[in-house]
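Please go through the protein record below and explain what the tokens say about the fold. Record follows.
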Amino acid sequence: MNRMRLFLALGLIVALASGCWNTQGTNKDSTHGVGDDDAPVVLYCAQDKEFAEGILGQFRDNTGLAATPKFDTEADKSVSLVVELQSERERPRCDVFWNNEIVSTIRLQRMGLLEPYDSPSAAAYPASARDTNHCWTAFAARARVLLVNTDLLPTPADRPKSLLELTDVKWKNRVVMARPQFGTSATQAACLFDVLGPEKAKKYYEGLRDNGVWITPGNKQAAEAVGRGQGAVAVTDTDDSLEEIKAGSHVAIIFPDRDRGAGSRMGTLFLPNSVAIIHGCPNPDGAKKLVDFLLSADVEKQLAEGPSHQIPLNPQVQATLPDAIKDGRTAHPMAVDFEKAADQWDDVQRFLRDVFAR
């Protein structure tokens, strides 16, 4: 098992229990540049706005620098920002990319769009969370889970235990899922193509379609649909699931494929956030300060204990997590190779567009 496959198996469970460019570029045509200490840092942010804004306000208070964020929509999570970064490669506008997953960040690195930076704040993170060329650092993970409506499924024995069960006729017209071409749903698809192999993964998604899966714009809407009882089970993220629990909805979180044996690659998919500096960005000095801040132990603790309850990867961070998240400490992590998932991204996207074109 290579380094990327060991990432969560060796690093994340511990936390629960306790080629890019080689030279720094500048953008001479930008409206602010190197040496302008007061210039704002432009952040493209795939993290949910409500979780990020307070942290960016603290960055301003601590450094005197403003971080100007550009958020994407729930329906276009992360993908629209990646496309924008590609389109701007000759004249970057963005300084820092805060992604809510890892595979698209690896893809940007391969395109030569990321700037190496060995942040001192990253030193405490496990090696598996840091790119060997210092182009990105992973932090603050979420899990892809099943959220079930406990009124519709009151008996635990009747609830699904695996993602693969959702193609069974028992779940016909009862499953809700965000559009699989975007956000963490897209990352999960790419990961399943690596773990299951392309043919089995294709059959799985075709089976979901044929079984009447309800496609929503985003993970939040999928979780809300189950909270309202419009669906029995949703494939979604831990943060959106926790929002439904806090809202008083009759729901429960299931970490799928949690009881797989040690030899199985299937398991619960844990996805970290990632942060990177854009090559040739307008404000490289400010970008470094923002990356240092986002990777600080204090920010990971806030993301863990705030509304999103994201799981720290820095082993020095001691955070109190909700009971529903603590249950993930015994889950078997999906043994995914994120690099190989990135290899298959374009093929997976074409397949998903064909299968779920509406």
Notes: The chain is about 35% helix and 15% strand. The longest helix spans residues 49-63.
